[in-house]
Design brief:
- Strands 1, 2, 3, 4, 5, 8, 9, 10, 11, 12, 13 and 16 form a 12-stranded antiparallel β-sheet that branches. Strands 6-7 form a two-stranded antiparallel sheet.
- The chain has about 325 residues and is mainly beta.
- The protein contains 2 helices and 16 strands.
- The chain has one domain.
């Protein structure tokens, strides 16, 4: 069974991230240290930090196109932002459904769940132009696609939708994919050009990828009928599934153990900065001239391009 890692093209302008990532809001900052190399390998060189050590960190993400939060629930005057006792109890007694936006239109529904567990990792700027990082992570993804609106409505309402009990319903393409893997990465970044108002740096990460678990399930032309909230009739469906060897029922192999063939992945990135006032950040010290302040952001415009998670991992069939 083959499971392919996500390949992402990410473009960063100033501090805007064009693609959803782990540690959102932090990984694309100038103070993310070793964590920032996940989004942009070149970020570790000319960093605000000489050295950065990450002992432990985690990032959890959940996206869907079915259930959302109404904008007014996040307004400044909303009770969620008022922690006085009276408002807290008044809001607590309000049904949560009143604050949710349900989009049960014809478009198929999807759910994406991701978790990134950061284990001890280190970044060091060796010189003004060279930096390295050693990273250890465990990542997991669950992706559910092709849930048609009637099935989404039934699941959301715990099957208690009488109007959907009688007619036969067809779900065209339903699929679930899940994968857990570990990464051991080495990142190297270097300043390519640092002359005048133009600054350019590049970086690359090589990762050893160890697959820990994977599974998939799909159903095509899934035709079903609920006659009540406890009786389901299935008239048609072309189903298939696969899983890694540690899902076998006669084994107890779950844990931090690779069940895939040895695999490697790569991240590549480049960053350009426009520094029209670069002379403001120059100084002389201890007999050295034209030193550059490392603790300050020196650009008026910053553009980054990165290609992430190039590679694949192959599991043995269970």
């Amino acid at each position: 069974m083959k499971k392919y890692l996500l390949c992402t093209l990410s473009i960063t302008v100033l501090v805007f991230n064009a693609h959803a990532q782990d540690f959102l809001g932090f990984t694309n900052s100038n103070y993310s240290g070793v964590t920032g190399s996940d989004l942009q390998p070149a970020s570790i060189v000319d960093s605000r930090f000489k050295t950065d050590f990450n002992l432990f960190g985690t990032s959890f993400s959940l996206y869907n196109n079915y259930v959302g939060l109404k904008h007014e629930a996040l307004d400044h005057d909303h009770k969620w932002t008022d922690f006085s006792t009276d408002n807290y109890y008044a809001f607590k007694e309000t049904p949560i459904q009143n604050h949710l936006d349900i989009r049960s239109g014809p478009k198929p529904k999807s759910i994406y769940i991701a978790n990134n567990l950061y284990l001890p990792s280190l970044m060091v700027n060796l010189t003004d132009k060279d930096a390295i990082a050693l990273k250890w992570k465990v990542r997991s993804i669950i992706n559910i696609d092709g849930v048609d609106a009637p099935l989404a409505d039934l699941l959301y309402n715990s099957l208690e939708v009488p109007s959907l009990w009688v007619p036969q319903v067809n779900n065209k393409n339903l699929s679930v994919q899940a994968m857990v893997w570990a990464e051991y990465g080495f990142t190297y970044a270097r300043v390519i050009k640092a002359e005048g108002e133009h600054f350019l740096k590049a970086g690359a990460t090589v990762k050893y990828v160890a697959g820990l678990a994977a599974a998939y399930f799909y159903v095509k032309d899934f035709q079903y009928q609920f006659s009540s909230d406890s009786v389901l009739s299935i008239s048609h469906g072309d189903a298939g599934y696969g899983h890694s060897s540690n899902f076998n029922s006669d084994q107890n192999n779950f844990g931090y153990k690779s069940v895939s063939q040895p695999s490697f992945g790569f991240d590549l990135g480049v960053v350009y900065e426009w520094r029209p006032d670069y002379m403001k950040y120059k100084y002389d010290m201890n007999g050295e001239k034209d030193l550059t302040r490392k603790d300050l952001n020196k650009y008026k415009l910053k553009v980054g391009l990165s290609i992430l998670d190039i590679g694949k991992v192959k599991f043995s069939n269970g």
